[in-house]
Amino acid sequence: GPCPAGAEEEEDGDEELLGAGGPRAWTPQEKLLHEARLKAKAKRRLRRTSSRDSARESLSEGAEPGPEPGSPKGRAHDRRSRMGKGRGLPKKGGAGGKGVWGAPGVVYGYQEPDARDPNYDEAAQGDTVYATVVPELEEGELEKNVQPMVLEYFEHGDTSEVMELLRGLNLGSRRHAVPSLAVALALEGKASHRELTSRLLSDLVGRVVAPEDIAWAFDEMLRDLPDLILDTPEAPQV
After folding, report:
1. What is the pTM (predicted TM-score) of this model?
2. Per-residue pLDDT, 211
3. C-alpha span between 20 and 186 (Å, rounded)
4. N or C: which end of the chain has fewer CB within 10 A?
5. Across-strand partners of 2?
6. Which burial class, exposed, middle or buried, applies to 233 when counting CB atoms under 10 A from its CB (0-12, 13-18, 19+)?
7. How far is Cα 109 from Cα 16, in angstroms, rounded to an integer?
């Protein structure tokens, strides 16, 4: 009858021990090699015995074997495509998934308020007005923006262009600084520049600055007259 695998290995080992020409004396190296083979066979036999015992114990305790890889139950939690297809691309072109706002490069336009939105407040809804907010200029920024306008105006003499540029700035409470700066630059320039400045201030009143701003600017210049004389000695006569 068939013999166990361990017996077959022992018989093979005996054949190797006897050799092809019958019994003979082994050298020390051959004897050590033969002992190492016997130890390896004993370890393999021990592992097979322990694995069979553990399998019997698991079956005796009533443990249910896991689903086979090819069974429908085993594919219940498989995240791969069940159609056997798919190009390996992200779903929805990369615009889906948790924490994703949309596909890269997509710009969303205005959307009407949704009454079913939990944050919708009917009383607060009305005509939505979108406006560009321009921050008020600081003192240093005002001089940096207005001075080039006035100097270019001395070249072209177009008051409407200066008014259009000034309307694009948020002068705020510093409107009076515009006529004050224009007059100071005119005093440092030629007589033609003073004539152009007079025409500019006349056109700005009521459009960009108020009459009170003009009066405030000249009052400030009178207070600073000693300093102006240092740069422009003829300032009191002008």
Report:
1. 0.42
2. 92
3. 124
4. N
5. none
6. exposed
7. 86
